Amino acid sequence: MVTRYRATLSYDGTAYQGFQRQAHGIASVQGAVEDALTSISRRRVVVVGAGRTDAGVHASGQVIAFDLDWAHSPETLLKALNAVLPDDVALQDIRVHAGFHPRYDALSRRYTYQVALAAQRQPLLRGRAWCFRGMLEGEALNAATALLIGRHDFGAFGQPTSGDSTEREVYEAHWSYETATFGTLWSFTVEANAFLKHMVRRMVWMLVKVGRGQLSVEAFEAIFRGAKLTPNSPIAPPQGLTLEAVRYPDYNDGEHAGESRPPEE
């Protein structure tokens, strides 16, 4: 009997041209998971994801779903898939969830972005953070970031992947930092009901300009409120970005108590 499965997926996106399946011969995370499913089931299985992360972007909490005729337990399926998946892709959990859709059922998605400030190159961080020399001024950085929270038109930061509306609601946006032997590691966390294409990376680019004193908070706000995407506007490098979590309703099944978070009005 064909069953709908839901799973949490983590991956290092360095070697992949994004999550979405690509043309033959081009590596994608979706393609890797589908190949693993074909390997254990001998049938073509289509995977649906909660979001289409770009080339080089990572995930610790991507959520996927697929339909499979599997005669054994979900735990056995988890072990079988992880045994044949590449080392840089792994399922973290799997369960039966009839009718579940990882994209349309999602309440919000949360991303983190890492910025490493160091006087010298940091080889161990080159695939995990945007690294450069200098400092970030936390007060200005946080003042600009606070403007993002709430329901706004985010057209200055991207285009919709479907439809025409560029209005989104950001529930959480903040920076934190820790001192390291090489310098300082900053982390940007943002959670919203949905995101525009490249929205997080454009926000990070512009916020970093504020933190470096290259753009005032007032100028940042004017660009943001203008809600107009500038052609060829720069975006932060992909390797600093990670899809950390996707939030869903609890579906009244008790499995996700404490995880669900309805959109705020």
Polypeptide structure, described:
The chain folds into 2 domains: 104 residues, Pseudouridine synthase I, catalytic domain, N-terminal subdomain (Alpha-Beta Plaits, 2-Layer Sandwich), CATH 3.30.70.580; 138 residues, 2-Layer Sandwich (Alpha-Beta Plaits), CATH 3.30.70.660. It is globular and about 60 Å long. Strands 1, 2, 3, 4, 5, 6, 7, 8, 9 and 10 form a 10-stranded mixed β-sheet that branches. It is built from 5 helices and 10 strands; from the N terminus they run βαββαβββαβββααβ. α1 crosses α2 and α3 packs parallel to α5. With 265 residues, it is an alpha+beta fold. Helices cover 21% and strands 30% of the residues. A hairpin with an 8-residue loop joins β2 and β3.
List keywords for this structure.
265 residues, alpha+beta, Alpha-Beta Plaits, 21% helix
In a few lines, what is going on in this structure?
This protein has 265 residues and is α+β, with helices and mostly antiparallel strands. It is 21% helix and 30% strand.
Question: Topology, pairings included?
Answer:
Elements: E1 2-11, H1 29-41, E2 48-49, E3 58-69, H2 74-84, E4 89-96, E5 108-118, E6 130-132, H3 138-146, E7 150-153, E8 167-179, E9 183-192, H4 199-211, H5 217-226, E10 241-247
Parallel strand pairs: 3-10, 5-6
Antiparallel strand pairs: 1-3, 1-4, 2-3, 5-9, 5-10, 7-8, 8-9
Helix pairs in contact: 1-2, 3-4, 3-5
Helix content: 10-25%
> Major sheet, described briefly?
10 strands, mixed
Q: What is the average per-residue confidence, as pLDDT, rounded to a whole number?
A: 93
Query: Tally the helices: what do you get?
Result: 5
How many E strands?
10
CATH C-level category of the largest domain: Alpha Beta
Q: What are the low-pLDDT stretches, counting only 5+ consecutive residues below 50?
A: 253-265
Written as H for each helix and E for each strand, in order along the chain, the element string is: EHEEHEEEHEEEHHE
Percentage of residues in strands: 25-35%
Radius of gyration: 20 Å
Overall geometric form: globular
User: Whole-Å distance between the termini?
Assistant: 41 Å
Counting structural domains, the number is 2
Question: Within the CATH hierarchy, at the fold level, what is the topology of the largest domain?
Answer: Alpha-Beta Plaits
CATH architecture of the largest domain: 2-Layer Sandwich
> How would you classify the helix and strand content by structural class?
alpha+beta
CATH homologous superfamily classification of the largest domain: Pseudouridine synthase I, catalytic domain, C-terminal subdomain
